[in-house]
Design brief:
Elements (H helix, E strand, L loop, with lengths): L12 H7 L14 E6 L9 E5 H6 L15 E3 L6 H11 L3 E7 L3 E5 L10 E5 L5 E4 L12 E6 L11 E2 L3 H6 L1 E2 L2 E10 L5 E6 L4 E3 L2 E3 L1 H9 L4 E11 L3 E10 L8 H15 L8 E4 L13 H8 L4
Parallel strand pairs: 3-4, 16-17
Antiparallel strand pairs: 1-2, 2-9, 4-5, 5-6, 6-12, 7-8, 8-11, 10-11, 11-12, 13-14, 15-16
Organism: Engystomops pustulosus
Enzyme class: ligase
Protein name: medium-chain acyl-CoA ligase
Length: about 300
């Protein structure tokens, strides 16, 4: 359905609104009946239609109203993990902390840094009381602290009512999102001894190079610590020896655009080695004017990865 304009094969909200009757007859519904269909942001491909029930939708309602920046008392973030540097700069400018959280169109809030909790910059916080969140392996077994795995929400013996019901019109995708007793979010993370979750990357985004698994977020965060880098996106790139290597697409600060790119590439590579680990540095760096993003501002890493692997 289009809100403005027209598109072949789509319904027009304005035409339906104009043709609607003045009186509306309410229909009795159950909490499990479909209520609304959200679209995912499309960071991994085409947006998926995600169905939520009346119960789930009602619990996720938010109030829309006016706002005044100077009256701001608390800040929260979601959608993409913040780099610690951004959180530090925000704290300096506003005097306020940012409470990070993690969720999806399918799940609403999965975990977060709730009021009264210690803030660990870069962490997604702890599991929401609504969910039993675990880090699981390929067989659906729960992993120990600090072991990397898939983020799983327990759906057995009872499916949480916050969770979406299905991907509309795509039963195969719905089935593939489940492993044993868990719904898999498609993201990988670790959980520390205190119960805080740490984002590694989308399952498709994690790079396997010479047997090492490398999350793009850590490399992007390291690059952003360098004054030359305004934005970065890290993806896998084919390599005949290592299978895959880390490649970084970098948007430079205006003060660095005239620098020698070969020398700057080596400087950034050495910087990442020092901040993370020698095997994680980007063996390839491409300087670009901008990064491809979704309408909601998320980096489309799949587009960059497909370009590298000849799928664009």
């Amino acid at each position: 359905m289009t809100v403005t304009g027209k598109r072949e094969g789509w319904l027009s909200f304005q035409e339906l609104y104009t043709a609607a009757e003045d009186k509306h007859t309410c229909v009795r519904t159950k909490s499990t009946d479909p209520m609304t269909i959200y679209f995912t942001s499309g960071t991994t491909g085409s947006p998926k239609m995600t169905e939520h029930s009346h119960c789930s939708y009602g619990l996720g309602l938010t109030m829309n109203g006016s706002y005044r920046f100077k009256s701001l008392r608390q800040c929260s973030s979601g959608g993409e993990p913040f780099n610690p540097q951004v959180m530090e700069q925000w704290k300096v400018k506003t005097g306020l902390d940012i409470y990070e959280g993690y969720g999806q169109t399918e799940t609403v809030l999965v975990c977060g840094t709730f009021k009264g909790m210690e803030i660990k910059p870069g962490s997604m916080g702890k599991a929401s009381p609504s969910y039993d969140v675990q880090i699981v392996d390929a067989d659906g077994n729960t992993l120990l602290p600090n072991q990397e795995g898939d983020i799983g929400i327990r759906i057995a013996p009872q499916r949480p009512f916050y969770l979406f019901t299905q991907y509309t019109g795509d039963p195969e995708k719905t089935a593939s999102s489940q492993r044993g007793d868990f719904y898999l979010t498609g993201d990988r993370a670790t959980r520390d001894e205190d119960g805080y979750f740490w984002f590694v990357g989308r399952s498709d985004d994690v790079i396997s190079s010479s047997g090492y698994r490398i999350g793009p977020f850590e490399i992007e965060s390291a690059l952003l610590e360098h004054p030359a880098v305004v934005e970065s996106a890290v993806v896998s790139s084919p390599d005949p020896i290592r299978g895959e290597v880390v490649k970084a697409f970098v948007v430079l600060s205006p003060t660095y655009t005239g620098h020698d790119q070969e020398a700057l590439t080596k400087e950034l590579q050495e910087h990442v080695k020092k901040v993370t680990a020698p095997y994680k540095y980007p063996r390839k760096i491409e300087f670009v004017e901008e990064l491809p993003k979704t309408v909601s501002g998320k980096i489309r890493r799949n587009e960059l990865r497909n370009k590298e692997w000849g799928k664009a």
